[in-house]
Design a protein that fits this description.
two-stranded antiparallel ribbon, 7 helices, globular, single-strand selective uracil DNA N-glycosylase activity, Smug1_1 protein, SMUG1
């Protein structure tokens, strides 16, 4: 059994990138740097609560948004070699729907683990919701909001947001399946 050649991404920063994605501190720069980097649809006043986990606000959705935004900014420093040409960051361009999801479904601390968080072209990359196939996000979760476009789109995988008519090819992420039969409605 031969091993495939492994290509590694290069990080264009001097600090180490954290591999622990728990609610520990992740520092990515000063507040002024963060507000300059914020996408147009993200609030520039999103507080940085990643410096000290003991000072987290009791608002879990805001805490998660702050951590996600800090991690996103840190991950953007990774430079990928060819053949990688397109990077989608749904937490930024689908910020409205993603933050609505957190406000509605992540109000309290929970011990959870998401596995396989690779956003499919017809799921989270369209909606900003984990395992978020469009029909499920709109009709079952009852979410709405504005979705922008990524800065650079792959022509065969355009983001049309909640207007997307396609679905995952085998079993859509979050489709009628074990989740819906178990929980019936949100």
């Amino acid at each position: 059994m031969s091993e495939w050649p492994v290509k590694r991404a290069r990080v264009d920063v001097k600090e180490d990138l954290p591999l622990d994605l728990s609610m520990r501190s992740i520092s990515t720069g000063t507040e002024s740097e963060k507000s300059q980097e914020s996408p147009s649809n993200c609030p520039s006043t999103l507080p940085n609560h990643s410096e000290n986990t003991q000072n987290f606000p009791p608002d879990v959705p805001l805490r998660l948004l702050s951590l996600e935004f800090s991690l996103t900014k840190t991950l953007q420093k990774i430079l990928f070699p060819a053949p990688v040409e397109y990077l989608y960051s749904p937490i930024e361009y689908a910020f409205s729907v993603h933050s609505n999801y957190l406000q509605k479904f992540c109000k309290h601390e929970k011990k959870i683990l998401f596995l396989g968080m690779n956003p499919g072209p017809w799921g989270m990359s369209q909606t900003g919701v984990p395992f978020g196939e469009v029909n499920t996000v709109v009709n079952w979760l009852g979410l709405s909001g504005h979705i922008d476009k990524p800065p650079r789109e792959q022509p065969a995988r355009r983001v049309t947001g909640l207007l997307c008519k396609r679905s995952e090819e085998l079993l859509p992420s979050g489709s009628d399946g074990c989740c819906r039969s178990e929980y019936h409605s949100c």
